[in-house]
Amino acid sequence: MTLRLSWLVAGGLLAVSLCGGAYSADTGYYAVQPGDSLAISVWKEPDLASPIVLVRPDGTFSFPLVGQIDARGKNVMDLQQTLTDRLRKYISDPVVSVTVQEIKGNKVYVIGQVQKPGEFIVNPRVDVMQALSMAGGTTPFASLGSIIILRRSGTTQTALPFHYNDVAKGKDLEQNIELQSGDIVVVP
User: Is the pTM of this model over 0.90?
Assistant: First the structure.
């Protein structure tokens, strides 16, 4: 039993490390986002295998016997533990496996004077310069000293300044922040 559990934990860690996405510097793991697809299975319980579970826009998903699970801010190991705890009411010693099948929830947006404005799925971490590169770079009409990053936290939105030329010259590199899911880079 211990060897099997060790392999499952190692497999879970590998799955988390390969997924990328909304990486949390606090935990070192990918945080599941709305829009992501998960695969969930319970060892020796084929009726509880769910090849695709979509994390809804409110950050929750449903699973047989346990009902609704809140995935906001949780990584794969957190979800495995939650499902295991809830399934213990019905199954003795459940072994739950959760893997991220498709990452679609970790998006940033680049708009304005760039070659290819739009939404970009980022895995695992992207800073402002990398996002601008993903958007094909700026146009000749871009105001490089007036770029801002719009970040929402709950109901509050903040504008973070970004001076492209300073960062390109290696100055004020702290401006080249790691973008979070939902950030919008505006290039006027």
Answer: no
Q: Which one-letter amino acid corresponds to residue 188? A: P
The token pair that represents 156 in the structure block: 């509050």
Q: Which CATH number fits domain 2-102: 3.30.1950.10, 3.30.70.1290, 3.40.50.1000, 3.40.50.200?
A: 3.30.1950.10
Q: What residue type is 178 in one-letter code?
A: E
Task: Count the neighbouring beta carbons within 10 Å of the beta carbon of residue 49.
Answer: 13
- Give long-range contacts, CB 8 A cutoff, 24+ apart: 159-167: 162/128, 164/132, 164/138, 167/128, 167/129
With 90 as the cut, is the pLDDT of residue 9 above it? no
- pLDDT band for position 22 (cuts 50, 70, 90): low
For the stretch 101-116, pLDDT in tens is: 988 888 999 999 999 9
For strand 37-42 and strand 96-102, is the pairing parallel, antiparallel, or unpaired?
Answer: antiparallel
Q: Would you give the end-to-end CA distance of the chain in angstroms?
A: 59
What single-letter amino acid sits at 74?
K
Taking the C-alpha atoms of residue 116 and residue 133, their distance in angstroms, rounded to an integer, is 10
Task: Yes or no: say if 72 and 121 are a contact pair by the CB < 8 Å rule.
Answer: no
> CATH for 107-187, among 2.40.50.100, 3.40.50.620, 3.10.560.10, 2.30.120.10?
3.10.560.10
Q: What span, in angstroms and rounded, lies between the C-alpha atoms of 108 and 145?
A: 21
